Amino acid sequence: MAMFSFLATGIKKYYDIGETLGKGSFAVVKKGTPKEGGPAVAIKVVDKKDAQFDEASLQQEIMIMKKVSHPNCIKMHEVFDEKLKMYIVLELVCGGELFDRIINKGHYSEQDAAHCIHDVTGAIAYLHSMGVVHRDLKPENLLYASDQPSDSDYETIKVADFGLAKIVQGGKEGDGSMTTTCGTPGYVAPEVLEQNAGGYGPEVDCWSIGVILYI
Ligand code: PIT
């Protein structure tokens, strides 16, 4: 059973914060090493003084991540809410983004693509069953678990960045539908871009998975 602590201060008492791993939505993600020993973590650092900072949407992201427990989704461990910064302690993965893997590999086989999409559809089916729509699926938000792939075992992918995720009730029907235009051009479903239409539902994630599969 997962436990979450929301500590008011003092992440530096518990973790050494190291190198930058990447950039999420409106934040930087750094490597963290627990002072008391134990496995390293990823720490999403959000600057509350940043013009982009939106307390309500960060609280929503944290609320969603608290519920998420799936082998193909990055897990949240704990949150440190300090005066100037919010620190979200996350599961560490070291394999880098799918985006870079496709670029660097030169070739990306159908088998690689099948494994990748298997993991992503598993994660998204789970999220949808919980009423969570990701809304920003793209190769930059799909992370390889390991940078030391073994030959026997295929490489696990994990979905990251729940910064645009939203909870919907009852799929696309009724008041559960969404109207906010968001996401990343190129991966976003047409109905998300059609602002005057009748809203959209969880299937917008399936559109993005289709574009990712094609790439
Ligand atoms: C890692 C390694 C890495 C990036 C991340 C995690 C980012 C994860 C993440 C970012 C978010 C979010 C959830 C997870 O909402 O290079 O282990 O903005």
Give the SSE layout.
Elements: E1 6-7, E2 15-24, E3 27-34, E4 41-47, H1 55-67, E5 76-81, E6 85-90, H2 98-105, H3 110-129, E7 132-133, E8 142-144, E9 157-159, E10 166-167, H4 190-193, H5 204-214
Parallel strand pairs: 1-5
Antiparallel strand pairs: 2-3, 3-4, 4-6, 5-6, 7-10, 8-9
The structure holds piceatannol.
Short descriptors:
single chain; 215 residues; alpha+beta; 5 helices; 10 strands; binds piceatannol
Characterise this structure.
The protein has 215 residues and is an alpha+beta fold. Helices cover 26% and strands 23% of the residues. The protein is built from five helices and ten strands, in the order E-E-E-E-H-E-E-H-H-E-E-E-E-H-H. It has helices at residues 55-67, 98-105, 110-129, 190-193, 204-214, and strands spanning 6-7, 15-24, 27-34, 41-47, 76-81, 85-90, 132-133, 142-144, 157-159, 166-167. It has a six-stranded mixed sheet with strand order 1-5-6-4-3-2, with helices on one face. A two-stranded antiparallel ribbon has the order 7-10. A two-stranded antiparallel ribbon has the order 8-9. A hairpin with a 6-residue loop joins strand 3 and strand 4. Helix 3 (110-129) packs antiparallel against helix 5 (204-214). The longest helix is centred in the middle third of the chain and has 20 residues, at 110-129. The mean pLDDT is 89. It binds piceatannol (PIT).
Major β-sheet, in short?
6 strands, mixed
* Strand order in space, largest sheet: 1-5-6-4-3-2
Number of helices: 5
- Range of strand content: 15-25%
Task: Tell me the Rg in angstroms.
Answer: 18 Å
- Low-pLDDT segments: none
Q: What oligomeric state do the depicted chains represent?
A: single chain
Helix/strand class: alpha+beta
- Order of helix and strand elements from N to C terminus: EEEEHEEHHEEEEHH
Measured as a percent range, the helix fraction is: 25-40%
Ends apart, CA distance between termini: 37 Å
Bound molecules: piceatannol
